[in-house]
Amino acid sequence: MARVRDGKFASLRTKLLWTALFFVCFMVGRYIPIPLLHGEATGTGSELLNAANVATGGDFFYPSLFSLGLGPWMAAAILWRFLFIGRIARGRRIPETTVNRARNALMVVLAVVQSISLMANYEIDALPWGPFSGELNAQILIVVILTGGAILVAWLAQRNEDLGLGGITMFILYQIVITAMRNLGTLPAQAAEALEAGVLWFVIAACLGVVLIGVFYGNAEMRLHVNKVSIDNGFIGVSYLPIKLNPAGASPIMYAFALLAIPQYVVHAVGVVIPGAGTGASAFLAAWSLASPIGFTAYLLLLFGLTIFFGLFTVDPKDTAKRMRDGGEYFDHVAPGPATRRYIRRRVVALSAASGVFLVVFTGLPLIALGTHPQLQFLLTAPGTLMILLGLLWLLQEEIADTLIGTKYVFAFRTRPGGATA
């Protein structure tokens, strides 16, 4: 039998080496400047862009090759599912090549839009090179560089998913740490101001709730008793279908920020490209922010909706019901097939809705103070950032544990008499 070469069965040391390589590439790209951009970032709605940067590993306010981070890739991934949700719901099989092409094309479009939006926040130097001189050519070159950087980040994340450890987790964790370090010096002043404004204890309570309940949710699960032919009996025992109490994890927070920022990017880019649209774009950007009632409400609704969406995506009642029917498994008093699918969907939606309420209360409601205290953004977004951090670390821990188990299994298989061949 051929030796196992799949990256999923690689040793933990091998995966760590691959991750270190991709991570170094990501860090280097974060410090490659765009030479034609200079000055300080300007524009409205900066609190939403700051939050989106943390959630997607980008850096909108420090222009570099990787300033867009994973924002275009994450937004394209979820927008693609929304655009094709009808075909998916009808059970139509979409070829993998079609999926990749559509998602990549959408990512490039979003990257171009975000590049134009980012570029408009800085002063631009004209190209001095003969026939290519002029500010327009400089703008085109900047968009191409930033879009290429976003594609390269997405490629690094995908390769890390295949060969390394953590997937996109490592890049987002890096941005969370960098943002925390940048704001660490201002934390005492912000805490004093938050105490005076009467929001400090609310933020502390939200952070404690995220830690206590978040850790509990990370390990807790609901077990649905499953009857299996020739297995579920008094001599062998019983089997269950485990469903985590928080099926979506921290993904709704990250993707909510990424999706909420898309209208800002699009409108800002339209205001830059179309003459005379700047006034309307500025008015929209002022309204579509976390500090405004419209943007704040949209974020809470998006956060709750994505929690249910990701819960159903993670468990997938349709595939689970089909697998159970094919394997001769069934629930008590529930017929196999559509009835089982509806039964699983109800359970997943109920758990996801409870998790959505938790995320809205503990990570969303603290942002209501952004309208009156925008300078306290780092503190007010701390519960959400902490939830993302805990969720990503939990996923990383589970992946490490699975890697160790898989390594032991492959090692035992290879060392078994007659089980290993060259």
Key descriptive features of the protein:
disordered N terminus; two-stranded antiparallel sheet; 422 residues; 3-stranded antiparallel sheet; single chain; 5% strand; mainly alpha
CATH class: Mainly Alpha
Tally of separate domains: 1
CATH topology: Preprotein translocase SecY subunit
**H-E string:** HEHHHHEHHHHEEHHHHEHHH
- Beta-strand segment tally: 5
Instruction: Name the shape in a single word.
Output: globular
Number of helices: 16
Report on the architecture of this protein.
The protein is mainly alpha-helical. The protein has one domain (7-415): SecY subunit domain (Preprotein translocase SecY subunit, Orthogonal Bundle). The chain is built from 16 helices and five strands. It has a three-stranded antiparallel beta sheet, with helices on both faces. The longest helix has 34 residues, at 382-415. It starts with 11 loop residues before the first helix and ends in a 7-residue tail after the last helix.
Summarize the structure.
It is built from 16 helices and five strands. It has helices at 12-30, 46-56, 71-83, 85-89, 96-119, 135-163, 169-183, 187-197, 200-219, 251-273, 278-287, 293-315, 317-326, 338-364, 377-380, 382-415, and strands spanning 37-38, 123-124, 221-228, 239-244, 329-330. α2 (46-56) packs across α10 (251-273), α9 packs parallel to α16 and α10 packs antiparallel against α11.
